[in-house]
Design goal:
Blueprint (H helix, E strand, L loop, with lengths): L3 H9 L3 H12 L3 H10 L2 H6 L7 H6 L1 E3 L11 E5 L9 E3 L2 E8 L1 E9 L2 E8 L3 E4 L5 E4 L6 E7 L1 H8 L10
Parallel strand pairs: 1-3
Antiparallel strand pairs: 2-9, 4-7, 4-9, 5-6, 5-8
Length: 171
């Protein structure tokens, strides 16, 4: 079990996956070096280590993460740290996604209408809840930012939150 005092240092530690993503992010500024690096990457070996890189078609077209990606079939909620420097790619989910900015900032670009996206600059303690099927992409581009993803099954979200009576007035 991790204590509250141990949480921030634990989350701030750069993972192997984040280190690879950071190198790719930095190399994008030098197209020739970037191209050579990407051509020489062994995507299959990286995938075997649990490190995924989108192909250019996936970056542009977007796709949907199915509900079964919640790490355990009996779990209703899955909490994880979003990788810093993760390559941008539009995607959706079959689940609700709650994005919490624990430390720092991120860019979250969300589909407002079909083919119309809105960029949100999120900062510490901001929360964004995305419904199933909403496409978005999120960028976390510095070593000092920590974003937490909370994935919630649709049935669980509805059972918990749809019981709350929402007032139509702001007063």
């Amino acid at each position: 079990m991790i204590t509250v005092d141990q949480l921030k240092p634990y989350l701030m530690k750069m993972t192997d996956e984040e280190s690879i993503y950071k190198k790719i992010y930095e190399l994008r500024k030098e197209p020739d070096k970037f191209k050579e690096y990407m051509l020489n990457l062994d995507r299959k070996a990286l995938l075997n280590q649990g490190i995924w890189l989108p192909k250019p078609s996936e970056e542009a077209g977007g796709w949907n993460f199915p509900e079964y990606l919640i790490s355990n079939e009996t779990q209703n909620i899955d909490v994880s740290k979003h990788n810093r420097y993760n390559p941008l790619f539009y995607h959706g989910h079959d689940v609700f996604e709650m994005i919490y900015i624990y430390e720092g900032k991120c860019e979250n670009t969300v589909e407002e209408l079909p083919s119309k996206f809105v960029k949100m600059n999120m900062e510490k303690d901001d929360i964004c809840i995305l419904a199933p099927g909403i496409k978005h992409t999120m960028g976390v581009y510095d070593d000092d930012s920590i974003v937490i993803n909370i994935i919630i099954r649709e049935s669980t979200f509805k059972r918990i939150f749809f019981k709350i009576k929402i007032s139509k007035t702001l007063s």
